[in-house]
Amino acid sequence: MRAFMRLLDRELVTTPATDNLIPHENIYPDQDAPIIRNHTSGGCELALLRWGFPPIPNQRQPITNIRNLDSRWWRDVNRDWLMDPAYRCLVPFTAFAEPVRDSTWFTVPDRPVAFFAGIWRPWQGDRLAEQPGKSRRARENRDWELYAFLTTEANDLVRPVHEKAMPVILHDPSDCLEWLGGGDKSLRLQRPLPNAALEIRAAL
């Protein structure tokens, strides 16, 4: 991660929670995961946030991905989180799978880590939280930091597995910097990764 940050010419700031972070083997919605966001020092911060924006009114499930950027929900209700560089983030991954029964894993060849184009926001509300000494989580009403990431139409490699969508994937340093810079122009990055830039891994 630090090697990639050097390509961005950004210092990576960590916290006690992320200073010696153990790699996550699998990450699911409504769990904590590492993200990279802009830091007030001018560098980037590695932080642990909860996957899933607050649900749409009258629904219970958190919003894990963002597709229709022209909808009122994103252009009006959540515009600040979408456009402000302070709330842009990169979600690192080594491989991803679509949520189907027989998971097919995808990786970006020759890249030890790539990123989903994400946004984050603070939120106060009720979510599941780890309980000391207990294996099961319990609901707690408190302050959270939440993230979600953009999706786009599926490319030819992903379409047989998930015909409607795939994550917006960034691996070029200039694209990562453009995304972190915020604003309307950077939304052009909501596009499928070229077929040749992705490969299938049968099992990981």
Question: How would you briefly describe this protein structure?
Answer:
The protein is mainly beta and 204 residues long. 13% of the residues lie in helices and 33% in strands. It is globular, with a radius of gyration of 17 Å.
Key terms for this structure?
33% strand; 204 residues; hypothetical protein yedk fold; five-stranded mixed β-barrel; 12 strands
What do you see in this structure?
- By secondary structure, the protein is mainly beta.
- The protein has one domain (2-131, 159-201): hypothetical protein yedk fold, CATH 3.90.1680.
- Helices cover 13% and strands 33% of the residues.
- The protein is built from four helices and twelve strands; from the N terminus they run H-E-E-E-E-H-H-E-E-E-E-E-E-E-H-E.
- The strands form two sheets. It has a five-stranded mixed barrel. The chain has a three-stranded antiparallel sheet with strand order 6-7-12, with no helix packed on it.
- The two termini are 20 Å apart.
- The relative contact order is 0.18.
